[in-house]
Design goal:
By secondary structure, the chain is mainly α. It has two domains: about 60 residues; about 190 residues, Up-down Bundle (f41 fragment of flagellin, N-terminal domain). Helices cover about 75% and strands about 5% of the residues. A two-stranded antiparallel ribbon has the order 1-2. A hairpin with a 6-residue loop joins strand 1 and strand 2. Helix 1 packs antiparallel against helix 8, helix 2 packs antiparallel against helix 3 and helix 2 runs antiparallel to helix 7. The relative contact order is 0.16. The N terminus is likely disordered.
Length: about 270
Amino acid sequence: MASGIDTLASLVPLHTLAHVQSDLAVTSKRISTGHNVADALDNGAIFAIAQSVLNQTAGVAAVNSQLNGAQGLISVSNAALGQASDLLTQVADVLTRLSDQSISSDTRAQLSTQFTNLLSTIGSNLGTAVYQGTNLVNTSGTVGVIQDVLANQLTLTGQSSTVGGVVSNLSVAGAVSATSAGSFLLNTFATELNNVATSLNVIGSLNQGLRVQVQYNTAISGALTQGLGALIDANLPAESARLASRQVANHLATQTLGIANQSPAVLLSLFR
């Protein structure tokens, strides 16, 4: 900071210069950080509130990250169940052909092999529907996923009780005989096909619930961010204009102080 001769004429511009330079530093900080309150030195109370809001926003972001992971689990489960449903359509075709008593023994053997292979593929798909170590299709209980910053859990229902016995229930020797294939198609198969459809419905509902929760959390995060901005964000256009005016004021105050400091020197020169 500039200094002046300790005279009344220099003290006034010196004080003005100090005030202008302090104001200039504040404005420069606001522009460089983009915040009216960048730290506790600016405003301790507002900064403490802002930190609390920031922590809550970070918590919501973490929750949504977990919910997005749960949506991955739902997507994998849906893919496995959807594929199983498609394959069961082929199984129905095979059972229909097996119920025809006029087919040859060789044809019946080929259809039986096809029937077995289809069930094997269904079982494999359902057994490998794993996402981050969890297989919701083969889970008998429930899986909880955090849904908000209060650690409330959104419950994902395991589908083992519904589709866990699809393959074993369909893998019976009587299904490939001419006398039982038709009855099997209309009873046991129809039941298991309905079970897969039920699980698909549950998975779809769970996905909708997750999507709604993510949307809600995103809205909350946006509201928190908006509120935080109202607390600490600087009005950059106004601060830029203020910076320009403070720079001009700083230049004028420096010149004024220089002129004030010259006056005693001029007076002393008269006595040389």
